[in-house]
Amino acid sequence: MDFLHAIMFAILQGATELFPVSSLGHAVIVPALLKWNIDQAAPGFLPFLVMLHFGTAVGLLAYFWQDWIAMLRGVLGRGYAVEVSVQRGILARLVVATLPAVVVGFAVKKPVQHLFASPLIACAFLVANAGLLLLGETMRTRGVKRTDNLTYTDAFIIGLFQCLAFLPGISRSGAAIVGGLRRGVPHEAAAKFTFLMGTPVIFAASVLEIPKLLKGHEIHALFGVASIAAIVAGMVAYASTAFLMRYFRDHDAWALKPFAWYCAIFGAASFLLISIGL
Q: What is the value of pTM for the model shown?
């Protein structure tokens, strides 16, 4: 992979990881559409993507640093008793929401790994992602829940929805937001909880995969490029998060629908173009 492709991947990752349109789906489809000469089955490709995820997690951490500091203060017992209790509760719910992804991830990683190399399968699941987003808007439960008053059941169900993203083309953020909507959480609060929840998940994946970049000559040579790309992904992720938090606040009535129509059109058009070899 050359430097230009790496940076383009970084920009793609930094945006699509947060937007409910599936970063992994786009990482499979876009190179196939543009006919990039990249071997996505190569041993260094998945760790490279994980490096981009690591950069994205840093961008999320930078945007929500005040929330993480508040939770840390709660864990350490710093501040008023009420605030300490609230922050400990938020952190506990994030842990509960993360558990399904950890368990399911270990269970399904090998069975679904081959799907990540198939652009046509990714296109099909991207269309399915569109259906999920539209269904989420249609079947949402109206409510005014916030990050600090979710129940443990709410958190667990949102975490279960997040697990749909193990299929390439299903958006992690989109699935989790849909889970939040079903539990009566407005778009903005659901997005915030989703982004907070995604940070440790992405960091955990990075801890498992990044060391692979240091093994073998080919992968080791990619590490420098991957590091620069990760920085770019983090910057794009920060900007994407800032935009989306405002967007979800201002368009709570129908916020996921434009992304659903994009996924449906892009997924179907890409499937057709790749199938006929254009």
A: 0.90
**CB contact set of 109 (below 8 Å; sequence gap of 6+):** 166
Query: Which position has the token pair 């089955």?
Result: 41
DSSP 2-28: -HHHHHHHHHHHHHHTTTTT-HHHHHH
Give the separation between CA 194 and CA 125, rounded to whole angstroms.
21
CB 126 within 8 A of CB 263: yes
- For residues 200 and 174, the answer to whether their CB atoms sit within 8 Å is no
Query: Is 214 a residue whose pLDDT tops 70?
Result: no
Could you give the C-alpha distances from 52 to 14, 18, 211, in angstroms and in order?
8, 13, 14
Collapsing DSSP to helix, strand or coil, 138 comes out as: helix
Contact assessment for residue 15 and residue 259, using Cβ atoms and an 8 Å cutoff: no
| DSSP calls for 86-119 | HHHHHHHHHHHHHHHHHHHHHHHHHHHHGGGG-H
CB 235 within 8 A of CB 56: no
Share of the chain above pLDDT 70, in %: 87
Instruction: Report the C-alpha gap between 189 and 192 in whole angstroms.
Output: 5
Kindly state the average pLDDT of the residues 1-11. Answer: 86
Q: Quickly state the pLDDT bin for 49 (edges 50, 70, 90).
A: confident
The DSSP 8-state label assigned to residue 216 in this structure reads S
CA distance 176 to 174: 6
- Residues 53 and 70: their CA atoms lie apart, in Å, by 24
